[in-house]
Amino acid sequence: MKKRILTGITTTGTPHIGNYLGAIKPALKLAAENDESYFFLADYHAIIKNTNKAEVNDSVKSVAISWLASGLDIDKSFFYRQSDIPEILELSWILSCVTAKGLMNRSHAYKAAVSTNESKDEDKGITMGLFSYPILMSADILMFNATHVPVGADQLQHIEMTRDIAGRFNHIYKKIFNLPEAIIGDDIKTIPGLDGRKMSKSYKNIIPLLSDEKTLKKSIMKIVTNSLEPGEKKDSNGCNVFSLYSAFATSDEISSLQEKYEDGIGWGDAKNLLYNKINNEVQHIRDKYNELNDKPHIINDLLNEGANKVRPQAKEFIGEIRDLIGISKI
Ligand code: TRP
């Protein structure tokens, strides 16, 4: 069967090196290897956690530009904004009506929010958006009947829920939804931030993707290492500098750095090698980003074009779904 790849990018903040290695790069590789790929900016997911209008809007722009600057080919992939396809929200409601509340109760994302609640009322601060967000995600996927969904390991449960929900609908009405499979990138958890924990904006340990060279270098120099001196043999195992280097380098380059570790390379020199490696790869992304950033109308045009390509598919399919459930002309 032909693969149809689809993934959503929640638009929060400006992408960093962890997002680039863990999400953007693997997705673009999949797009190059497959005939059909759908990438969309999940802006209706962004408002679950962020009610700041300017931040939501800016994030859509910076995330869209980052993907385009990283080489997303809009002639080969569908690239659109979730909010430009209102049929997704319509489908989300229809799916809500066949989804057991108990299924949502089991969602890790929701349970994590409940368990960290310090208030006596475990539902304090929990919105219906957060509670039912796996249904919106299911609608994103099922609207285009994707076969494969690349996601981080933390999203696996949501793909299983999507299969459950699709199966339920198929059982009640008619078998029209494909049950999608997750493609799990394990890259995301192995990309350490400055302090060795997973690179994440919330840990404040990121290496920026789009900053100027000076800022990039400064951030790389802050990577935490042990205090071995130059000349002393270093262990590459569990070394943040080494792991990050490995994420960008070829296997020959990795072996060569391994030898240098054994020969006692100093941390300053190792970090310089890492800086050059990262800078070489992101240089053109940064330049392209800056170029596009000054021309937001181009981004708007591209996203409109993307929506114009996929919306007819969504309209046609939602018509079929409406007929199945009895919401059609009498
Ligand atoms: N929830 C996903 C995340 O936080 C983003 C997302 C929204 C998504 N809709 C999707 C991913 C549909 C895959 C398919 O990473």
Topology:
Blueprint: E1 4-10, H1 17-33, E2 36-42, H2 43-49, H3 53-69, E3 78-81, H4 87-96, H5 101-105, H6 108-115, H7 128-131, H8 133-142, E4 148-152, H9 156-172, E5 181-185, H10 187-190, H11 213-221, H12 240-248, H13 251-262, H14 267-293, H15 296-325
Parallel strand pairs: 1-2, 2-3, 4-5
Helix pairs in contact: 3-14, 4-8, 4-15, 8-9, 11-14, 12-14
Bound molecules: tryptophan (TRP).
Describe the structure.
It is a single chain. This protein is mainly alpha-helical and 330 residues long. The protein has two domains: 4-191 and 296-325, 3-Layer(aba) Sandwich (Rossmann fold), CATH 3.40.50; 211-290, Tyrosyl-Transfer RNA Synthetase (Orthogonal Bundle), CATH 1.10.240.10. It is 56% helix and 8% strand. It is built from 15 helices and five strands. It has helices spanning 17-33, 43-49, 53-69, 87-96, 101-105, 108-115, 128-131, 133-142, 156-172, 187-190, 213-221, 240-248, 251-262, 267-293, 296-325, and strands at residues 4-10, 36-42, 78-81, 148-152, 181-185. It has a three-stranded parallel β-sheet with strand order 1-2-3, sandwiched between helices. A two-stranded parallel ribbon has the order 4-5. Helix 9 links the parallel strand 4 and strand 5. Helix 4 packs parallel to helix 15 (296-325) and helix 11 packs antiparallel against helix 14 (267-293). It is globular and about 80 Å long. The relative contact order is 0.14. The model has no long low-confidence stretch (mean pLDDT 94). It binds tryptophan (TRP). The site of tryptophan has 12 residues, from strand 1, helix 8 and strand 4. Tryptophan is lined by residues 6-8, 10, 42, 45, 137, 140-141, 149, 151, 155.
